[in-house]
Specification:
Number of domains of chain B: 2
Strand content of chain B: 15-25%
Structural class of chain A: alpha/beta
Shape of chain A: globular
Largest sheet of chain A: 5 strands, parallel
CATH superfamily of the largest domain in chain A: Thiamin diphosphate (ThDP)-binding fold, Pyr/PP domains
Helix content of chain B: 25-40%
Radius of gyration of chain B: 20 Å
CATH class of the largest domain in chain B: Alpha Beta
Low-confidence stretches of chain B: 1-16, 209-224
Oligomer: heterodimer
Number of strands of chain A: 7
CATH architecture of the largest domain in chain B: 3-Layer(aba) Sandwich
CATH topology of the largest domain in chain B: Rossmann fold
Shape of chain B: globular
Structural class of chain B: alpha/beta
Strand order of the largest sheet of chain B: 9-11-10-13-14
Number of helices of chain A: 13
Order of helices and strands of chain B: EHEHEHEHHEHEHEEEEHEEHEHEHH
Strand order of the largest sheet of chain A: 1-2-3-7-6
Largest interface: A-B, 46 and 45 residues
Helix content of chain A: 40-55%
Chain lengths: 350, 361
């Protein structure tokens, strides 16, 4: 009798990442780090009303997002997946517009981006991933060609009942879903040991008969390889996989948060471990894959990119108020149409 | 406008018409689902016990055997999972028709219904519509355990992004379900479980065989208005506004009142969101008196919304304030007491009497 489900042995043509790919991963991480840091500054400058930084989670996000095949997979994020979005090549003005308070779900097109709208009920979208993935099974793709859903959530969201329901549904239906947990140590002010009984979300997967991987979430290559093998497992029709990327939320929960009330700087320094970006840089240097000129260029590109995104965000005006009404339904109700008319007459005096 | 054919007692007059068949609401819903699956390869039906068993009310009876396990399937016992899964299936291009086994079990799924299904079209700026038809066996009257007799229409109607409909008879059940299952927006389809086994005439060839109002008629789906209310009985003195199982009861009340010379109109609202305000205005504009009847508790029930719509359109001509005869502001009681809770004939007659005897000042 086996008790530990294991990843099916699949040939996913998993050649080691090329030097070019490794440099690309670094460039993405540098861009994400700079945009993330800049976005906090934008909030301080009044450009955006709020932001949820992903500082310290660049390896977990870029490493996993880099494995997504945009021609057939679909990503189900919460609100702290900027690094995934960037790794997938999303329209970043459209993505960051949610933090500008332009539109809750962001202004990017989720269908074309293969990235579901940003939303704040953590764990809510975990079930959506299962439904979408089961849809791939129902669509009858031959084994090896399944589109795969990857759903992101954290140690905090893992407490939600929806995560249990989602894992159970996915296992029962053998749905091609990757449950990607970023265990970043904190759910706002509550540490993982007060959140996750047993200390590991991945350990729960065994109860569902789902294979799981716990990876060093600050090692971008390890994260990427784990995600890639999970995708191959799902694509081959073997059902879901759980990945728990152990990382650390180096910043506040959001720009409205004050971590000083629940953790000291000394605790942060000790618990955070090595900076994933710096760590990857040292590795690339040591292995002779990149040199200082490359890192300087990556930084320059990151700054250039951030400037363009900031300009785009600053130029983003408010949406026409009529969209409040027109986007509720595909077929608006008469009552809603008359509210829209009254609003227009009373606000625009037409 | 012809006499109602939803009243079982008038069914014999239609028995000769070939297109009209006698069916229970359970049979009508089952047939509608069968045809929906045949017509739309993207339609999928799922929920607790929907597959092999055919549902606890047998509404999906035989559908898995006929259409296969990919089209009609059982889920684990978790309502949030069922509705959350519906969102993902809709995003993948399917038309999910999930079932919540009993009204009270919609509560565990409320996050997925309110925060996800109702908002995804909006959140995604119209790129991810939610064509989900959520079937909910609803209301009381069957001596069931706790959480099996709830009336959730006001709760759902209050949520931006949801539409709500409840048929009162087999013919409407058949046509409204087929109509709802072709819409691009989420529809909460509230089936009056106490009416599942009552037979009535169903004309599968035409929705318009039932007298319908012309309000908001898009004229496309079934050659008649399936988006508005229905005059179930014409009358001159007072309008009873009802939906679901209360329509049949109001028709009974109207028959009794007729013996006393009181001519009552019964308006079957059918759609609880959007409410057919024009039909209310037409009916009460004529009768000048209205009583709203619903099983749900009084306070903030849909009767308040109906009363306001009537007041808005008919204030100048109303002879009396709109009266409400409803369930009470109490948890739905055990079977022994449910006849005390659900508006009965006497309470509806008292409501009618209060309106008829109302004097200004």
């Amino acid at each position: 009798m086996t008790t530990e489900p294991v990843l099916a042995a699949v040939d996913d043509d998993a050649a080691p990442l090329t030097h070019h790919q490794l440099r690309e991963l670094y460039t993405l991480m540098a861009a994400v780090r700079h945009l993330d840091t800049a976005a906090v500054a934008w909030q301080r400058q009044g450009i955006i009303p709020g932001y949820a930084p992903e500082l310290g989670q660049e390896a977990a996000q870029v490493g996993s997002g880099y494995a997504v095949d945009r021609s057939r997979d679909f990503v189900f994020p919460t609100y702290r997946e900027m690094g995934v979005a960037r790794a997938m090549g999303l329209d970043m003005v459209g993505y960051m517009s949610t933090h500008k308070a332009t539109w809750h779900g962001g202004m990017y097109n989720p269908l074309e981006s293969r990235f579901a709208p940003i939303q704040a009920v953590v764990a809510g979208s975990v079930l959506h991933a299962v439904g979408w993935a089961h849809g791939q099974t129902l669509s009858g793709k031959a084994s090896g060609h399944h589109g795969v859903a990857i759903t992101y959530f954290g140690d905090g969201a893992s407490s939600q009942g929806d995560v249990h329901e989602a894992m159970n549904f996915a296992a029962v239906m053998k749905a091609p879903v990757v449950f990607f947990i970023q265990n970043n140590g904190w759910a706002i002010s509550v540490p993982t040991d007060r959140q996750v009984a047993g200390g590991s979300v991945a350990a729960r997967a065994a109860g569902y008969g789902i294979p799981s991987l716990q990876v060093d979430g600050n090692d971008v290559v390890a994260v990427h390889e784990a995600t890639r093998s999970a995708f191959a497992h799902c694509r081959a029709g073997n059902g879901p996989v759980v990945i728990e990327a152990m990382t650390y939320r180096r910043g506040p929960h959001s720009t409205a948060d004050d971590p000083g009330r629940y953790r000291t700087l000394e605790e942060e320094r000790l618990d955070a471990g090595q900076d994933p970006l710096e760590r990857f840089k040292q590795r690339l240097l040591a292995e002779g894959i990149a040199d200082e000129a490359f890192f300087a260029e990556a930084q320059r590109k990151a700054e250039e990119e951030e400037e363009a995104i900031r300009t785009g965000i600053e130029e983003l005006g408010p949406r026409p108020g009529a969209e409040m009404f027109s986007l509720v339904f595909q077929e608006p109700t008469p009552a809603l149409q008359s509210q829209a008319t009254a609003w227009r007459e009373e606000s625009e005096h037409v | 406008m012809s006499e109602t054919i939803t009243d079982p007692r008038s069914a014999d007059s239609n028995a000769g018409a070939a297109a009209v068949q006698q069916m229970s609401m359970q049979q009508a819903l089952n047939r509608a689902l069968d045809e929906i699956l045949a017509d739309n390869p993207k339609a999928v039906i799922f929920g607790e016990d929907c597959g092999r068993l055919g549902g606890v009310f047998r509404i999906t009876d035989g559908l898995q055997a006929k259409h296969g396990e990919d089209r009609v399937f059982d889920t684990p016992l978790a309502e949030s999972g069922i509705l959350g899964m519906s969102v993902g299936l809709a995003m993948a291009g399917f038309h999910p028709i999930p079932e919540v086994q009993f009204d009270g079990f919609a509560y565990p799924a409320i996050n997925q219904i309110v925060c996800q299904i109702a908002r995804m079209n909006y959140r995604s700026r119209g790129t991810l519509p939610m064509p989900i038809t959520l079937r909910v066996p609803s209301f009381g009257g069957i001596r069931a355990p706790e959480h099996h007799g709830e009336s959730l229409e006001a709760l759902f109607a209050h949520v931006p992004g949801l539409k709500v409909v409840s048929p009162s008879n087999p013919h409407d059940a058949y046509h409204l379900l087929k109509y709802a299952a072709t819409r691009p927006d989420p529809v909460i389809f509230m089936e009056p479980k106490s009416r599942y086994w009552q037979k009535g005439p169903v004309d599968v060839t035409s929705a318009a065989a039932i007298p319908v109002t012309a309000a908001h008629d898009d004229g496309t789906a079934h050659g008649g208005s399936l988006t508005g209310a229905r005059v179930a009985r014409e009358g001159r003195h007072l309008t009873l506004v009802a939906w679901g199982a209360m329509v049949a009861r109001c028709l009974q009340v109207a028959e009794l009142a007729a013996e006393d010379g009181i001519d009552i109109e019964v308006l079957d609202l059918r759609w609880l969101k959007p409410i057919d305000a024009d039909a209310l205005a037409r009916s009460v504009g004529k009768t000048r008196r209205a009583v709203v009847v619903h099983e749900a508790p009084l306070t903030s029930g849909l009767g308040a919304e109906v009363a306001q719509l009537i007041t808005q359109s008919c204030f100048a001509t109303l002879k009396a304030p709109v009266e409400r005869v409803t369930g009470f502001d109490v948890p739905y009681p055990s079977g022994d007491l449910e006849d005390e809770y659900i508006p009965n004939i006497d309470r509806i007659l008292f409501g009618i009497q209060r309106v008829l005897e109302y004097r200004r000042g």
